Amino acid sequence: MKRCNNVTLGKLRKKLSKTAADARRNNGMKGGRPSPGTMIMHVAPDSVVTREAALAMGYTVYRTGKKCKFGHKGWRRTATTRCIDCERIARIKKEILHVETTIVENWRLENA
Ligand SMILES: [Zn+2]
Hints:
This protein is mainly alpha-helical and 112 residues long. Helix content is 52%, strand content 5%.
């Protein structure tokens, strides 16, 4: 069960700014969890692997060498073509929104 309070919110905000800063410095892959499908991005962060080649080799990530529209390094998911760094940032933002919503809901319940 996820804890939904101000402590969590503070931690999430810190995590978001760190993740966003890492992504801006193109160090985003350091924060990820290596798996067989994403190992290429950790061992050879500057390599260029087309989506087709990545799929053929069983990777879950690929890189065209072009940065994403937010200037991230350009590693994308083969399944969704979404930028890994953008995905990571969006996930934390969603968690923050969830915690904020819960705090407001709890306040409403307690102050009804
Ligand atoms: Zn991005």
